Amino acid sequence: MRLLAAFGVYLGDNLIEPQEDNPKGFFEDRALMELNSGLLGSVAENGRYGLLSLGAEFYDEETFRTELRAYLESAYGESLLWGFKDPRLCLTFRSWKGVLRKLGVSHSFLVPVRNPLEVAQSLQKREGRPIEFGLAAWFLYMFSALEYAAEAPSCFVAFKDLFDDVRGVMERVGRFLGEDCSAHTESLDAFEGEFLDAGLYRNRDDAAQLAAHCRGMESIPDFYAALMGFCAEGTVAPETIRELLDLHRESFTTLAASIAGGAPDYLRAEMHENSLTLKKYVSAFEDCSAALAENVKAHEFYKEGYEKFQGLYEDAAMALEQRQQALDENRRAMDELRQALLDSQDALQDAHLVIAEREETIRLEQQRLLEIKRSKAWRFLQFLARFGVGAGIVGKAGKNLRKGVERVERQRAYKRAKVSHALSSAVDAAGREEIQTVAALREQSRRGRHVVFMDYDFPEFDAHAGGRHSWLYVKLLADLGFAVTFLAQGNEGKPYIKHLEGIGVHVPDRAFFRGASWGNWLYMCREEIDFVVASRPFPSVKYLSLIRDLMRVPLIYFAHDLHFLRLGRQQEQAGDVCEGEISRCRTAEDKLIRRCSHMLTPSTFEVQYVAEHFGKQEATAIPVFFYDDEMLAGHEGEKEPGSLLFVGSFEHAPNRAALVWFVEKVLPLIVEKHGDAVLSIIGSKPPENWDLGEHVRLLGRVSEEELEQAYRKSKVAIAPLLFGAGVKGKVIESMAMNCPVVGTTIAFEGIPAGEMIVPVDSPEQFADRVSHYLGMDDAGYRAVQAGIRQYMKRYFSEDTAKELMEKVISSVDTDD
Q1: 600-620 pLDDT, tens per residue?
Q2: What are 445-496's pLDDT values in tens digits?
Q3: Distance in angstroms (rounded) separating the CA atoms of residues 451 and 550
Q4: Which of 195, 411, 420, 631 fits a 20 to 30 Å CA distance from 641?
């Protein structure tokens, strides 16, 4: 096709782009290739090469002709001499002929001939096809092509002559086209000097080698020899072509019938796979057809409605502006309603406060009644009663006394109704036993103090970073000598309950909460609680008023990250977060941050953020994970060359987005420099059938021992996060395992500065940083590991975490 272009044949402007295995480029029109593919794909169980199309009827051929004509008119209508290449034309040209005839286009064929063994070997190398498949496909294609070549002017060119006698080929093609080579000297010279490359002719075979591979298909060498004779002449009379076809027609018919009626083994797999795919498409087509029919009915219905109400259009247009104003008002009302809904959660707990206030009022009224009974007026009334005198004659003093008695009785009735409904229903025999259990734990603890740790679920320390973060600090509070109770909103987590109880943490029996809630438990045990640690905004914000206003105990807000900040960044990057959810989280976190006694967060960035945006000065950055000296010193191992590691749960949206970005944009750059680079991905709930290429291993969830082994073998850990908030546990864990980390600005946000904390955000920078570690010699790599150990001991040791927690607890004791 490049030679035809040198003679001025127009090939279109929609050609397939060059690729790595064909840098010289392709000369097939992309749209025409797709039309041919669609036509061949309409035959059931047709393979990629369309061999079952021989003698079969195409599905919806009329649509193909309509689309083909429209495209030829738009793309080639103004060209006097144009050409198109697709080997599958020998199967589909029967559907082209009528279109070309209606367009008034005369056609001819340039038939390239290549040794069939060379073609078969090329298919084997590129696609793994058996040699027999390539030989059969060549014979069926070439035989079908000659059927059409016998009906129109044709020129035959041997592929090997392009490299052995290119000028002779040029002369024969020029004569065929009616073009003088001297008129195209410059373009023909460029074709010979720049385009032709003998290195592209990789498979060269002779007739003897071909014959050796054609056992059972002996007609193929004879057919090829005849075609090479045609190439020597250039053009051949139609009668000569037909004689050759008649000579080999029986072989063609037998082979074509064997494929259509009983395909060879090497075709069955492809036929079956394509049959299943076609059935899926047919099923989808039927579903779409049914949906289309429903839509047509709906269209007719709405069309009738439109015609019926068309006269009202002008009135509706005039009312549009008023409706828009109403919509704005409704939107503002919706925002107020949303805020009211959030406030109503607090109102549930405010009821407890009202009850407490009523109790205090009753106590005061009882005290006043006692004072009245001790007064002279009361003794005077008793004196009158002895003589049968009615109380009404005593005037103002008697009236006040009756009103006081009646008020006390009403308040007593109110107390019995409200308190019995809201609280006392939960304090049954099991509740009283729970109070005794908590009191005993508090008394037996080393410090004689009791802390309640609240979270939405039990700490899954082996599944995700958030669960491990909570687990470490629950254990730390127990190690510091506190009696600890863990309240979890979720019902799951029995294995984790055993772990909590194993370190001395009290987990209330779930049977208690069947008719109660966290609020019942907290209020019931309020006298035995010294302070509360609330983890995450939901459902902690629901009990904020109960803890701070009614119970009046210190509240430490244990923030894993700022949820609204993380969700906002996710919305900017991916656009898949509801604005209402961001607003809901911000409202909840605003209340918790402003009203808590102290806020704990792993991120130094978030400590500065809440001080600047919320005016919260009582905030401390604590290690997201922490380790003792023995753990930090015990992670040496033989590193595998080119080994990369990513750890993170696939439930977390930032992790999924990070992996897609890294595999598509960064990993190819690393592989160019380090061909042995392999990325291992560890994390719970990975997507099914996620094929990321030969340089990626998707391991899913693993045990703690397997995870540690992965860190020991990996030379570099990656954290290519594009959005998120808080400190990333995977970064700290990797460095604790003495493995260098390459991460983005988001990945390192909130982490103390250090020599190894170098954020890189572009694909090129990220790949260069990873290559820097992969290319290090042993001495340089050991020096980096020594720096990591020193950094971790300074900022992420167990002693550091204990010291910070002691200071925070001391401060809330003083302030509250």
Answers
A1: 999 999 999 999 999 999 999
A2: 898 999 999 998 899 888 778 888 999 999 999 999 999 999 987 655 678 8
A3: 17
A4: 631
Note the pLDDT tens digit of each residue in 785-813: 999 999 999 999 999 999 999 999 999 98
State the CB neighbour count (10 A cutoff) for residue 690. Answer: 14
Number of neighbours of residue 626 by Cβ within 10 angstroms: 23
Q: Specify burial of residue 167 (Cβ count, 10 A radius: 0-12, 13-18, 19+).
A: exposed
Ranges assigned E (strand) in 249-319: none
18: Cβ–Cβ under 8 A, 6 or more apart, which residues?
A: 24, 25, 26
- Burial-class residue 632 by CB neighbours within 10 Å (0-12, 13-18, 19+): buried
Q: Which of 812, 725, 720 is closest to 466 using CA atoms?
A: 725
Closest C-alpha to 53, from 61, 44, 62: 44
Q: Picking from 44-48, 92-96, 98-102, 303-307, which range would have the lowest pLDDT averaged per residue? A: 44-48
Helix extents (H) in 517-562: 518-524, 544-545
Enumerate residues 6+ apart whose C-beta is below 8 A from 160.
114, 115, 201, 204
Reduced to 3 states, what is the DSSP secondary structure of residue 112? strand
| 563-574 vs 579-595: helix crossing angle, rounded to 10 | 160
Q: Are 547 and 522 in contact (CB under 8 A)?
A: yes
Taking the C-alpha atoms of residue 718 and residue 316, their distance in angstroms, rounded to an integer, is: 58
* Count of Cβ atoms closer than 10 Å to residue 489 Cβ: 17
C-alpha distances out from residue 23 to 14, 26, 306, Å = 17, 9, 58
Between the alpha carbon of residue 6 and those of residues 17, 27, 183, 261, 294, the distances in Å are 19, 13, 10, 44, 54
CA atoms within 13 Å, Cβ hemisphere of 693: 12
- Kindly state the tokens that stand for 601: 């967060």
Helix (H) or strand (E) holding 744: none
Q: What secondary structure letter does DSSP report for 153?
A: -
CA angle at 573 for the pair 578 and 680, rounded to the nearest 5°? 115
Distances (CA, A) of 554 to 246, 256, 591, 619: 99, 85, 15, 14
DSSP label of 110: E
Greatest distance between any 2 Cα atoms in the chain: 150
Q: H/E/C letters for each residue in 372-405? A: HHCCHHHHHHHHHHHCCCCHHHHCHHHHHHHHHH
Cβ neighbour number for residue 714 with a 10 Å cutoff: 26
Nearest-angstrom CA–CA distance, 258 and 136: 11
Q: What H or E segment, with its residue span, contains residue 309?
A: none
CA distance linking residue 226 with residue 218, whole number of Å = 14
For residue 731, give the nearest of 713, 715, 743, 722 by alpha carbon: 743
